[in-house]
Amino acid sequence: MADTATHTDHAADHGHHSSTGLSNNKLAMWLFLGSECLLFGGLISTYMLYRGRVQDGPHPSQIYDIPFTSVSSFVLLMSSLTMVLAVTSAQRNDDARTNLWLTITALLGATFVGGQVYEFTTFYREGLGFTTSLFSSSFYTLTGFHGVHVSVGVIMLLSTMGIIKRNRITGNKSEVVELVGLYWHFVDIVWIVIFTLIYLIPS
Amino acid sequence: MSTEPQTQSHEHGMSDAGYIKIALILAAITALEVSTYYVDFGPLFMPSLMIMMVVKFVMVVSYFMHLKFDNKIFSVLFYTGLGLALFVYFVALATFKFFIA
Question: Do B74 and A20 touch (CB under 8 A)?
Answer without folding.
Answer: no
